[in-house]
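Researcher: For the record, we're logging two predictions in this thread. I'll number them. Prediction 1 follows.
Model: Prediction 1, sequence and structure:
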Amino acid sequence: MSVDPSVRVLLADGQVGLVRPLGPADTDAVLRLHTGLGERDRYFRFFGPMPSTVDQLSAKVARAPGDRHAGVGCFLDGMLAGVAHFERIGTTSEAEIALAVDGEQRSHGIATLLLEHLAAAARAHGIDRFVAEVLAENAKVIRVFSDLGLPYEIDHAGPEWPVTIWLDGDDHYPDAFAARDRIAEAASLAHLLRPASVVVIGVGRRPGSAGHAVLANLVDSGFPGAVEVVHPVAGEILGVRCAPSVRALSRTPELAVICLPAEAAADAMEECGARGVAAAVVISSGLTGTPAGARIREAVRRYGMRLVGPNCLGVLSTDPSCPLDATFLARRPRAGNIGIATQSGGVGIALAEALSGLGLGISALVSTGDKYDVSGNDLLLWWASDRRTEIVVLYLESFGNPRKFGRLAALLARTRPVLAVRTGGGGTARHAAASHTAAAATPVVTRDALYAQAGIIAVDTVAELVDVIAGVSWQPLPHGRRVAVLSNAGGAGVLAADACEREGLRMADLSPDSVERLRELLPAEAAVHNPVDTTASVRPEKFGQALDIVLSDAGVDAVVVATVPTAVGDPGTVLAGVVTGVAKTVLAVRPGQRERVAPLHADGSVVTACYDDPATAALVLARQAEYAAWLARPQNGTTVLPEIDAAEVLKFAAARVSEREGWLSPAAATDLLRLAGIPFVPTSYALDETAAMRVAEGLPGPFAVKADAEGLLHKSAGGGVLLGVQGASGARDAYRLLLARFGPALRGVTIQPMADRGRELFVGLRSDPVFGPLVVFGLGGVDTDLVADRAARLAPLTGADADLVLDGLRSAEALWASGIDRAAVRELLVRVSRLATLVPELAELDLNPVAARASGCVVLDVRVRLARRTPEDPYLRKLSG
């Protein structure tokens, strides 16, 4: 059963519950739930009075789950608040469902949560349809079915309405579950970022401790709610009343901030849970991997709390209705529109300082630390509902649920920029011994694919992060990648142009009219083609006119302006006035300025960012252009293909993986491609030389003989491919040669007619248990790993994703100019993606080489590895921990 035992879930009001499979030990709890229903709820559940056999029904609901039955329950504070169960109908793929929810908890979305988890369990057992009967007057349950987001049908004839729900889902389901997630998360995280009251535990009476700093910041922030401190002996600290214990507090605080040593922090967390505290921030370090850390995790589960940390900087919000600074930052940041989620407290401190220095402000800062509970995903949902936050910044060292992260980030990035620092690039694990795909699908490649598909603006350092934040804060996004460079110092202009081209930007071709106007305006020695060099002798007002001309050129999407002061004048003094109100993107460069990036002002307002180096401006502009291009992409762009026989593919994979995990035989791998509709060169398999000779007799021309040998990864490089073989005697000799070469490791040979190899490409797939399947494309053949010209995206691929992969190679322009069939290769990528999402057991796939020709493409060699995987519903709502 795919439903995890005791997964933490968020109810619609932000309450934390537990959902888990039911078993015989829950029979009494199920019975209590049913007998506790009100009269009208009993009528709706049983279409009449409570049956005398309700005890038998309860035992049936709570029996051990299997492929014919499963029940799930939602528990609040240890009490069963709702149940849902299915019973398979005969030998069909259809199951009847029923549910019951405690009347006092009905408005919290429990029924919907239970149906989501029940559907996940049913899909894992091959059930694709739920059926039920509901009384016509039971509007609440009918609303649950309609709001679920899955395709459904209700027969409105008579007093009892039959309902059918299809579990395959459609385009509406992700939107429906995302909306529920967003509502629940906003209610839940309000305990952390908009609490009515706060207690700080672990405050020293004198400055110098984290707890004292947290309390001082909290008091100074103007937090409007009640504040108390837990201290064993003090009566008050910083004017705040103290209590000797959590139990002795004058009220139950909504938020607790814990700044104690590890063991004492665990004690405090348990006391807070028992008192009913809704959320906690654990500043304390040294907990992860210790019994004290385990106790904190258990307290979070047992008491339904939300937790930030441990080992964190704290949380901060500048919401004017509830300002809150529960951090130990040295200085309070400015209020603003930038939301920050960071695993590293040090990065949080550096960002807060840097942004304040630029005059930029923060809407909220959450330091997640060791992420026992609240993660980047939670905060993406929070910011989706927070209109004060116009830019989101992430520093993530790990992903708990990257597939959910990708969906949430993509939804958020449609409305505001989302920026992230790439981390974890130094220790990439290469598995070259496994396959070409494994060699390419490193953690870094997978992470970058996730960021690219989600529309995240990714950078490599915190300094670059600040650079890009300044650019997106003060300038509009460019409409394209065509850039003009204008400078009064030729060297700075050349450096800027080189940097732009390195970043993948295009140097714009200025129109003849623009060139002529520049020639009339500037000295004869000026360079009037892009990059434009006005020369150092041009006075500021003429430089401003030149910038006007370049900005008015329809072929220019953005301008990088590099200026230096001279004895004639300083062109930098006119930039702000020219740039003000301009719709195009303009970034300034001031070589030698003290700050790496600084605001450029006009009439007291910031009009653009000014950088100390042309390379920095080019990097910022390139990231802005990439984001603008992502926004302009169609949001689906799926490719319509002939249907893959899903049932046959699943049956094939299940049968093979049940025999043994690992690499399929060449014959079996070929069968899988055939079922998926992937074109493969005609192939025969021979176990011995007699069979090889029999196959050869039916071939009119030369053929290739390839070894199927234990441990042979790269057939060509390993001496396992013989080309140009002819006739039965040639097949016999080839088999004997390979047998002599590989000995007992030789399991057989594949025989294929010699084909026009066209342009050799590589298509691969590697499925990561956490990130899911990654589709890799590149140049193929023997040297594919050596050349390493590849692009990758996470499945499922839309048609737009496939196009980005095809154009993502360094050699893409030359490759597609060579005349090969792009549409056929694109279809191959989408088919591989669909196969990966259909078959979770597909761990690795190598199609190398793929012969691409002017018309069509065909796979010449394939390797497939299957592994047992428990399919996970990508839309199942659950919290970490």
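Researcher: Logged. Prediction 2.
Model: Prediction 2, sequence and structure:
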Amino acid sequence: MTGTTRGTVALIGAAVLAATGAGAVGAGAAAAAPHGTGRHEVSRAPAWTTKVRSQRSAAATATAHVKVWLAPRDGAALERLARSVSDPGSSAYGHYLDTAQYAARFAPTSATVSAVGSWARGAGLHVDAVGTDRHFVQLSGSPAALSSAFTAGLQTFTLDGHTGTAPTTPVTVPDALASDVLAVTGLDTVTHWTRPQQEGDRGTTATTTSAPSDLGPPPGFVNSTTCGAYYGQKVDRTDPAFQGKHLPYSVCGYVPKQLRSAYGVTATHRTGKGETVAITDAFAAPTIQEDANTYAKRHGDKAFRRGQLTQANDTTYDPAKVEECGGNGWFGEETLDVEAVHGMAPDATVAYYGAASCYDDDLLNSIARVVHDNKASVISNSWGEPTYVVVDGVKTPTIDDALVQAYESVILQGAVQGIGTYFSSGDDGDEGANTGVVSPDWPAADPYVTAVGGTALAIDKAGRRTFETGWGTDKYTLDKGRWTSVGYLYGAGGGCSDLFTKPFYQQGTRTGCAMRGVPDVGMDADPTTGMLVGETQVFDAPTRFGQGVRYGEYRIGGTSLAAPLMAGLQADVQQTRGRIGFANPLLYRLGRTSGVFHDVRPEGDRGNVRVDYVNGLNADDGLVSSVRTFDDDSSLTTGRGWDDVTGVGAPTARYLTTASGRH
């Protein structure tokens, strides 16, 4: 899903990050406020607030909520342990902690929680809740009280059409809490929200009676039937040749058995039995189990068994945030994620954790709940945000050191417990066209995340991979009988971070820079070669699925598809070996062996012809054709070895069998 750039806009302590050679947990909290103030600076005010005129002081009557993220005990030791248990070359490899052992060694103490709560109450705030494993203390109060408590200088702003509050001065806490507080989230409600990384060109000219904020079924979308059941089944000989060749029509959408076959799952007879994959997204589709079961049975797979799909949803919805986040616009993401994981690992348990909003701290809270429950060994996250934006011509980071530390406090807990955290790498290529700054997305760029990039995958009638190249799309439309470029449309995210130094597992890999390279691995993401999904929708006109509230199917892609495909495949790998945990050290070690990964390069057709209904529902208003090219991903390129579109490459059957052993 494309949209206006969102992010946690603030200045980052790049030197602090570089000092760790990875993330920021081991670096301690942000620099102290000037001597004699009695206050410790947690984070600076977002830089964009100096460029945007505030409207007024924050409203005095409203109640707002924030999370105070707490530092783990001995964060440096936590980071060292996460590395050693994840590194196949370490004697500690695979020796994971359970939740109780993590809590005993690293979780913030009850005394720390009490100290934060006591100070907050004294500052006129209310203590609402304590996060799992004491990761955070949630507080509430009026904006004026929160502004005073954190010296935040909260003001009201409108940016990109969205109105909320943001700090205009450094966020601080008392010196007595300096070593305990990593970050304070929730003060900035102008940005700090994210989006799913899915692409399907669902935008239509049709009206709909479905309002995103009512959390009912989303508006319907229907692909035209001018498409193939497998790659190359139908060739467009009606339209002019493209660059001297008549191209195939796009596929109608691969179904799970085709993807399992192409990636070697079928050949290895893996089903993910005994494994659990967690998924985090915002909100929760009320028809997800019914839809996923209908979809599976329609395409020759088994429906979920009783208890095989579990849901742990945070339903403390703030109506304003539901509206801001697009409400049921997230249901397609959940549908894609659940059906992709189940498709790749039909016998694995799928555990869905729906966040209360699309704000990054609520989504991070969902990851923390997964880690605390410790039932899943793989977490699929198909959302993210750019690392930079440009406001009034000024390049502005979208993350700060405090936020990085909060994320890593949770992600590193997962790593020491043998839980791998996977993020889609993004759908806007190098982000240059989207934000004006070339840089990989966050959190995919974090060194303790497995970033999943995107490919364009050709699967033939027999279920074989005939080629797999990079996902990057230039769009062409017909103008006076000639194909004319519209320009860059979308593509897999990636590139070299300028915030994180090159992590240990990439040291022997040619990434073209001395910093963290993104992504780590790639799977099918191109919407032209995307996956078919099934979802209950509202069709406001007659369609082949009917009219009104009906189950319907459509093709979709994006790295939102690649991430759950990889998560499901990892469940298949773990079926015979147990937890992989943080996978990057293993992926890069295996990537040095020929044939374990498909080395994604420029290959195959130049692109496909896509035919769409003009109104997105039926042929009443006509059809429109376009060419969607392959392997045209902004400044990012595929090539021999590691590349910034697909990392070490795409998995093969040999990967499944090789990774299943201990290394």
